[in-house]
Amino acid sequence: MLQALQAPRGARVVLDQGIATQKNLTWMQEQGYRYLVVNRSRAREFDPEDCTTIETATGEKVHLKKVHSEDGKEVRLYCYSERRAKKEEGIAKRFMARFEAGLEKISQGLSRPRTTKRIDKLWERIGRLKEKSRGVSQHYHIELIADESGEQAKAIHWQRKPIEGTLVPHPGVYSLRSNETDWDEERMWRTYIMLTDLEAVFRSLKSELGLRPVYHHKEERCDGHLFITVLAYQLVQLIRRRLGEQGIHDSWRSLRETLNNQCRITATFRRADSRTLHVRKATRAEPEQLAIYKSLNIDPSPGGVNKLII
């Protein structure tokens, strides 16, 4: 992709976790590219000592700590987000409760007649529970107690043992890696967050702005379709930059939701001469909408007033 884009040596490449493989990073190092990616390592760690705390546009606090690699060619940026921690804690609790409910169901079945008690079949059931547990099963030690025959289980015991360095004991923690060793923590984090912002914009392009599906069959028509969508993306970025200069840092999704409440309506009146008057105009803009219109120097009553007599 970089070769097709004719990206020059020294260009900065920001990748998400899916393609930030060690092989790709090694190739970029050999070709002289700079990179900033999510660390694919599942290990999580965060030391609150000597960390840098920044605040996002939404008021969320993010704690950052930069650590240099042993050879000095890379840095790791360990990040802790309070908002992300609450979200991941909720996800982990939900899947743990679901996993334990499945184990409890197996336990209750051991005391009932005509239920599966063979140890090999029970381990298969436990295996299916683990497949649906989204990884939380690794934090449990499970033991089946066999009866005198050794083939059937008479009890099941489990104990939660969180594994250090994983999501359960360290929610809200993730890390970035880069060969930009001279950058400070805030610059590195904000540069990477641009990727999340771009992904949100592209999700909007694929839905509201019609990037996909592409119904054209000829290559030149497909190229034109994509080109128009890219132009729309440029407009989105221009709008957000101008709003940012006025202190409005909302995401594109938030901006659309704010402006979506204003609409154009048509009122119909019966005149004394039996003719019908149709008046079409925009609804009155709310204060948040007015702030956006003012920042962009746009009329808060788009479309004006149209009257039609029939």
Describe it for me?
Among the domains are: 85-160, no CATH class; 208-258, no CATH class; 261-309, no CATH class. It is an alpha+beta fold and 310 residues long. It has helices at 22-31, 82-109, 119-131, 185-207, 219-245, 252-259, 287-296, and strands spanning 12-15, 34-38, 52-55, 61-68, 75-81, 140-146, 153-160, 173-178, 264-270, 276-282, 306-309. The model has no long low-confidence stretch (mean pLDDT 87). The protein is built from seven helices and eleven strands. The longest helix has 28 residues, at 82-109. Helix 2 (82-109) packs antiparallel against helix 3. It starts with 11 loop residues before the first strand and ends with a strand. The strands form three sheets. It has a six-stranded mixed β-sheet, sandwiched between helices.
What composes the largest sheet? Answer: 6 strands, mixed
Main-sheet strand order equals 1-2-8-5-4-3
Unreliable parts: none
- Derived from helix and strand composition plus strand pairing, the structural class reads alpha+beta
